Amino acid sequence: MKLIKKTSFKFIILLITVLNLNFVSAQNSKFNFTKVDKLIHGAIKDSVFPGAVLLISKEGKTIYKNAYGNFTYNKKSSKVTLNTIYDLASLTKVVATTTAAMICIDENLFHLNDKVIKYIPMFDNNGKEKITIRNLLMHNSGLPAYKRFYKLYSTADEVIKDIYETKLIYKTGSKTVYSDLSMIVLAKVIEKVTGMPFDKFVK
């Protein structure tokens, strides 16, 4: 896993470098993305990722787009197209939840050291009364990493109710455990202080 992450990081740096060189050399001529295509095909061959969609825009206009590889590492899986929809998964933690929390802090809707129970009294259960907004953001709340909610429930209300009843797996603040549950709770806090559904607020 660490090797894949390092390889992916190196690929991203290399791709940015190639794109920059390409833009510089193409300022007074047509853009040529042959090197970019070759780089991505090479990364797929080396199993850096199974497939990709690339879109490059300049001054508000799309100047290049292409799809590469397959949806998974199984060569029999669907080919990636320009319309392929990817699961954003944990990117939502950074792109949506964390950003939304920073907006709330900037607007004084809540503060890092506020306890979660200030906004969600029902969270005061099974030792969770000391958990703060900071703990949620730092993944040291004591909540488990994840639960397979998709196998258990069909509504968001059922999920959040389960989290309210969940017991801590370690003392709050004593260590770091990357936690999906912490981000779900944080999204609920954001809904409480903004008075808006989370998906509406992040738009």
Q: Can you offer a commentary on this structure?
A:
- The chain is mainly alpha-helical and 203 residues long.
- The protein has two domains: 68 residues; 112 residues, DD-peptidase/beta-lactamase superfamily (Beta-lactamase).
- Helices cover 45% and strands 8% of the residues.
- It has eight helices and two strands, in the order ααββαααααα.
- A hairpin with a 2-residue loop joins strand 1 and strand 2.
- The radius of gyration is 22 Å and the shape is elongated.
- The chain starts with a helix and ends with a helix.
- The N terminus is likely disordered.
What letter string, H or E per element, gives the SSE order? HHEEHHHHHH
At the fourth level of CATH, the homologous superfamily of the largest domain is DD-peptidase/beta-lactamase superfamily
What is the CATH topology classification name of the largest domain?
A: Beta-lactamase
Sum up the overall morphology in one term.
elongated
Please identify the oligomeric state: single chain
Low-pLDDT segments, ≥5 res? 1-6, 24-29
Q: Number of helical segments? A: 8
Rounded average pLDDT: 86
Instruction: Please summarize the sheet with the most strands.
Output: 2 strands, antiparallel
